[in-house]
Write a structure and sequence with these properties.
The chain is an alpha/beta fold. It contains 9 helices and 13 strands.
């Protein structure tokens, strides 16, 4: 039957990771290799970086391919993790049409490949499908509050359409899909200039430059360490009960942006002042996942506490600055 899990090879699966040179994708590649799988990392390097995977390039069980998922891909693999798409506002708003094409055409092409090979495929969706939520925390049953014509719509609606495609392939073709709704994730290898709050605050604090807070700083986010997020994705893909999702993956602990800034200033010993700017259009004021479904179906909860994860992340960016690898 199309979509059934294929037998494992003697040395594990051959796994395709699109967006594999990105922040989350590179950590996922590492985790899969550690689990005994072969990895085909596909990336067009628009937002991903070779630096994220250069320590893997010498391995015989790892292959990197430059390819844009808006074009069909012909290869033989046993499973697909589809992570290809700009994920930060700075990147996805630079070329919104391209963002929609990556989210939608990329999903169509990867679903077509999974259908042809009769293999499972996981979609890295996002908490942005909930938009600026009118309820918190957000459960998977909440349909969201998304502005379909706003500046963030290219990403929000692109990901929502991708989810539609995944579930239609599941219903129409019996494809073994998995859909993970990823909430704010942080850790080493985040791109410095992508506009996301954790690297922006850390680099500014290490340089004793002002930390810019948009809005009054009382808006909240829930920050999940990348190692926890990757564990959740792998648990979703490999769950034997055939649970497809969608399922929230993220930390249920809300942190005000102003409190995050104060914590990072404290951890770095910085003299950086805090400056406030107007909140961008459609920027959600609260973002927190209900992860009861992940706990029930996947036996998954994040384990890395925010302070602990930030200490590691600060050390990563401090090393980059010291080596002159951050402009």
């Amino acid at each position: 039957m199309p979509g059934e899990m294929r037998p494992r090879r003697s040395n594990g699966w051959r796994v395709l990771v699109t967006g594999g040179a990105g922040f989350i994708g590179s950590h996922l590649c590492e985790r899969l290799l550690a689990g005994g799988h072969e990895v085909l990392c596909v990336d067009n390097f628009h937002t991903g970086s070779r630096r994220n995977i250069r320590h893997l390039l010498h391995r015989s069980d790892f292959e990197a391919m430059r390819h844009d998922v808006t074009f069909p891909l012909h290869t033989e693999v046993d499973a697909i993790y589809n992570l290809a798409c700009p994920a930060s506002p700075v990147h996805y708003q630079q070329d919104p049409v391209r963002t929609v094409k990556t989210a939608v055409h990329g999903a169509i092409n990867m679903l077509g490949l999974a259908k042809r090979l009769a293999i499972p495929i996981l979609q890295a969706s996002t908490s942005e499908v909930y938009g600026d939520p009118q309820e918190s925390p957000q459960s998977e049953a909440y349909w969201g509050n998304v502005n379909p014509i706003g500046p963030r719509a290219c990403y929000d609606e692109g990901k929502r359409c991708a989810e539609t495609l995944f579930f239609d392939y599941h219903r129409q073709h019996g494809l073994a899909i998995r859909v993970a709704r990823i909430f704010n994730t942080y850790g080493p290898r985040m791109a410095v200039g992508d506009g996301r709050v954790v690297p922006a605050f850390i680099v500014a604090a290490l340089r004793n430059e002002p930390l810019t807070i948009f809005g009054d700083g009382r808006q909240t986010r829930s920050f999940c360490h990348v190692s926890d997020l990757v564990s959740g994705m792998v648990a979703l893909m490999t769950n034997e009960a055939g649970f497809v999702g969608p399922v929230n993956l993220g930390s249920p602990v809300e942190t005000a942006i102003a409190d995050l800034a104060a914590l990072i200033v404290s951890l770095t010993g910085s003299k950086s002042p805090l400056v406030f700017r107007p909140l961008p259009e459609d920027d959600p004021r609260r973002r927190s996942p209900d992860i009861d479904l992940a706990a029930e179906k996947l036996d998954w909860r994040p384990t890395v506490e925010l302070r602990q994860g930030l200490v590691e992340t600060v050390a990563h960016f401090d090393a980059l600055l010291s080596a002159g690898e951050v402009a």
